[in-house]
Amino acid sequence: xxxxxxxxxxxxxxxxxxxxxxxxxxxxxxxxxxxxxxxxxxxxxxxxxxxxxxxxxxxxxxxxxxxxxxxxxxxxxxxxxxxxxxxxxxxxxxxxxxxxxxxxxxxxxxxxxxxxxxxxxxxxxxxxxxxxxxxxxxxxxxxxxxxxxxxxxxxxxxxxxxxxxxxxxxxxxxxxxxxxxxxxxxxxxxxxxxxxxxxxxxxxxxxxxxxxxxxxxxxxxxxxxxxxxxxxxxxxxxxxxxxxxxxxxxxxxxxxxxxxxxxxxxxxx
Length: 269
Ligand code: PAF
Prior knowledge:
Blueprint: E1 2-4, H1 7-24, E2 32-37, H2 43-55, E3 58-63, H3 83-92, E4 97-99, H4 103-106, H5 126-129, H6 133-148, E5 152-156, H7 160-172, E6 178-182, H8 202-207, H9 209-221, H10 224-232, E7 237-245, E8 248-255, E9 258-265
Parallel strand pairs: 1-4, 2-3, 2-5, 3-4, 5-6
Antiparallel strand pairs: 7-8, 8-9
Helix pairs in contact: 6-7, 9-10
Bound molecules: pantoate (PAF).
Pantoate is lined by residues 36-38, 66, 69, 137, 140-141, 159, 162.
Binding site for ATP: 38-45, 156-159, 185, 193-196
Binding site for (R)-pantoate: 69, 162
GO molecular function, one term: ligase activity
């Protein structure tokens, strides 16, 4: 596994990958898949990497805590950075190439003045609560697509609205990339895995289960009221939204100082 941090190193390593992928596949051209992350990898990321490993000839992992997608009062500075453990997991998953740029490498001229406009899909849910979030996400995803030149890209369904927005960008910009969603990985008690779970105290960890319970109640009854009734049982948790959208029940809530999101299909209970 090669680990690179600069654009020149990435260009050279990416070119080598194409050669290798070309010679390993039955077809003349092998597929390169990318998994984009902000590090602090957990079993949810592992599922993305293993799916990519099973699907494509060469797997690229990007690790970059993207400042553009954090609001001024958000957790950019304290976002967990666990590079050594991330690289160990990447190695165990058979990743071929890791691109872990600094902010200066990613944004050499300072923060970009031209950003992807996410359109009206960003006016609701995460976009409504976190102004500028999807401009930041789509801008960095677009740049990482240009830099890593994948055939396929893997994103978790846990960030369901993000997945939809990335699909819309790929469609509207005619990017030649197959976006593949991977189901959310959960703890045995239902808590969706998230890098931010590590902020939770043991008491908050227990309270956080209400997100899953609220979604399950919505899915079972088809009514948002049933989900809100679950939330009402844990008044310490402050609901941001619980709604139907994108063909899913979607929710975000504050558990202490930690904002968590989750979603479920209508048929899941
Ligand atoms: O889902 C994430 O970890 C981030 O939003 C992403 C897609 C890596 C862009 O920074």
